[in-house]
Each structure stands twice: as C-alpha cells, then as structure tokens.
Amino acid sequence: MEPIETVYHSNFKRGAYSFYQSIRHQDPIFPMSKQYNHTSWLITRYDDVKELLKSQSFIKDQSKLFSPAEREKNPNDMEINIFQHMMLDVDPPDHTRLRRLVQPFFNPKSIRAMEPRIQTVADTLIEEMRHKDGPLDLIDDFAFPLPIIVISELLGVPAEDRNSFRQWSNTIVAAADEFEESFIEDVQAFSTYLTKLFEERRNNPQDDLISKLLQAEEEGEKLHTQELYSMVVLLIIAGHETTVNLIANTMYALFQHPDQLKQLKEDHSFIESAIEEGLRFYSPVDFSTARWAGEDMSFRGKEIKRGDFVVASLSSANRDEAKFEAADTFDITRKDNQHLAFGLGIHFCLGAPLARLEGKIALQTLFTAFPYIHLAPSAQPKWKEIFLLRGLEKLEVELT
Ligand code: HEM
C-alpha cells in the first residue's frame, strides 16, 4: 500500500476517492504514520467511522493525556490563544457546558426564523451577479458571501469585515497542512480585532450572539474569557468555510451530471435531496474529524494505544459501497441518505440545520433567477489542496 504522504503529495484530492476505496478493502484501520511510539490511524469504513465518533474511549482534548509536569513543559505563550478550549476540541463536562450556551441559537426553530433574512441576502447577491461585468465566479460572487454574511449577522460581527475573516480563516485552515509565515500575524490580527469588538459590545450590548456570550462571560462560571474568543473564532470559521463548499461542490456535481441538473431545474422539489447527495458525494469536511485514543484498546482487530491519533475520513465513509448502493454515483433522487457529512455523537455539527437551509435557499434562488446557469466553457475547476476540507478554488459560470 502506498504511504499516505506519497498520495498526498501527488495531488491527493484528485485521487482521494480511489485511494480511500483501496484502503477500505485492504486495510480499513490504516496506520498512516508512526512517530515517537505512537501511530496515526486512518479509519475509512462507514460502520467503523460511526463507532469511532460515538465512542467515549476516543477523546478530543489531547492535554488530558499529559501529566501536569508535562503540561508545564509546553506553556502557552500567547496572551490569548484563540484556539484553546474550543468547543470542538474539548470533552464533557466542558463540552456540555459550552454547547448548552450556544445550542438555542442553532436549533431548528431559531434557524427557521432566519429564513426570510437568508433569502434577502441571497436575492441581493443574485442582483449583484446579474449586473456584474466580466466573468462570474460562483464561489466569490455567491457561495462565499452568503454564509459569511449570515453567520456574521447572527454573531453580531460587521459583515463588511468579511474579507479579513476570509483571509484569517484560510490561513488557519491551511495551517493544518503547512505552516505559513503569515499564520502568527493573522492569528494576532484576528485576536486583536475580537478584543476591540468585545469591548465595544460590552459598552453597547445588542440583540446578538456575541452580546449573549459576553453576558455569560461576566457571570463567570459559564464561559471563561479564553473560551469566549475560541467560540467566536470557531463559529466564524465553521459557519462559512464548510457551507461555501456545500453550495459550490453540489453545483459542481450537478454541472458534471447534466441529466440531473436538467431534472432539478425542471423540478425544484429535488433540491433538498440534491443538497444531501452533495454532502455525501463531495463531503465538505474530510480529514478534520480526529480524536485521540484515551486508553489502550482493540478496535476492529487493531491494537490502538493510549495517545494514538485517529482520523475518521467522512469522505471515505460516505462513499462506502457496503453502506451506499452505487456509492460512487451522484444521484439526487437517492433515498434514505444517511451520510455522515455532519459527523455524529456529541460533536455532531451544531450548524447542520443552518447549513442545510442556506444550501436549499442558495440552490432554489440560483435556479429560479438563472434557469440556464452552466459551467463556463473556459472553467477548469480545481480542488484546493488542503487536507481538512474539500472545496474548489473557483467555479466559473455563465448565466445564459
Ligand atoms: C462540528 C461539518 C456547517 C458549526 C462539525 C463536525 C462536522 C461538521 C463533520 C463534527 C466534527 C467532529 O466530530 O470532530 C459541517 C459541514 C457543514 C457545517 C459539512 C456545512 C455544510 C456549519 C455551520 C456552523 C457549524 C454553518 C455554524 C455555526 C459547527 C460547530 C461544531 C461543528 C460549532 C462543533 C460542535 C461540537 O463540538 O459540539 N461540523 N459543518 N458548522 N460545526 Fe459544522
């Protein structure tokens, strides 16, 4: 079996699905690498990924594996670390406390109430696309601004600062692959920006999520300052990076399957199942669902040691032929589509109802406004070479 580093460096995203398929057959609990006596495993089958995500033997917080003395050897030298104690990276009881604070803002009822506003944002973007001179990039002109405006408004962050968030969050997401020089600078800029915003909002509370979080922070036990920063950074990044890809990847899959594009244009009642199929077929989150083994254990016949790193590939699970009929076929009429694109268990995506609604409104609005939308003949869609997510660099389209 080819080592994963080789596959990665030879344009991993393009070859990922055949690579996953061969691993699923040959070695589904795949030892990717070994370092300092610890193995990093890649889990590729649907049932195994499901079991991993539900299991309490795998944890998120690596620091729990260290003794207090070891922790002191690696002090945190940043005044505010915007990644520390992030809800996504902690375990109960901290996880339960943090999730409880934000859950009411993301439950289906709260999200339904946002529908008219999301529609207005989509309509405004469509009007701008209609009047734009020159080539249209569905990502820059539509799929990116829609979710970033929505999450910014929900949080109470000025949406006009969205290009800064985009730069900061791109650097942060890319850092999982390669550490860019601008990383420290961008993280500092993000942190300074939030400090100013929090100060302003403390003096002038609004009816937004940041004001609610600041109130919880003042009450002490509910939210520590560090957690406040990390929560807002998480919501900004998770709230747009993935949804941009949901919209663009689904549109790309449709462009690749003209018969289904035609079917959808003629009958919008397939939009919701097309979104679910887009989530399964080109899952926006790939490699970022990782855990640490909290104890020595045997997992599907492999000996996993406490402290081993375990990555669940949602992309692979969602293409597992043992679970999905014709798994490599894009089919907007697929029934009972139990994909794992939003994860599972206690860390199941908080924003799933929002992402689904944004996806639905996006496609409905696009196809209503531009029934002839198609991929520009000169377009050469290319997957971004980042490990964590599956997203395109550009998606050039024509409207007539
Ligand atoms: C968690 C995917 C949109 C906020 C997750 C996880 C996945 C995921 C797979 C679980 C990670 C793990 O178990 O390690 C997606 C996809 C999206 C999307 C595919 C869009 C298509 C959103 C949106 C938000 C959001 C719009 C909005 C705010 C979060 C948060 C968590 C999370 C806060 C952490 C939950 C926790 O730890 O309890 N997401 N997400 N996501 N997502 Fe999403």
TrEMBL record:
Task: Identify its protein family.
Answer: Belongs to the cytochrome P450 family.
- Which Pfam families does the UniProt record give? p450 (PF00067)
Q: Which domain of life is it from?
A: Bacteria
User: Cross-referenced InterPro entries, in alphabetical order?
Assistant: Cyt_P450, Cyt_P450_B, Cyt_P450_CS, Cyt_P450_sf
Question: Does Oxidoreductase show up as a keyword for this record?
Answer: yes
Regions annotated as coiled coil: none
Kindly provide the name given to this protein in its UniProt entry.
Answer: Cytochrome P450
Q: Which Gene3D superfamilies match?
A: Cytochrome P450
UniProt organism field: Pontibacillus salicampi
Q: Which SUPFAM superfamilies does this entry report, sorted A to Z?
A: Cytochrome P450
Entry keywords, A to Z:
Heme, Iron, Metal-binding, Monooxygenase, Oxidoreductase
Query: Is Metal-binding there in the keyword field?
Result: yes
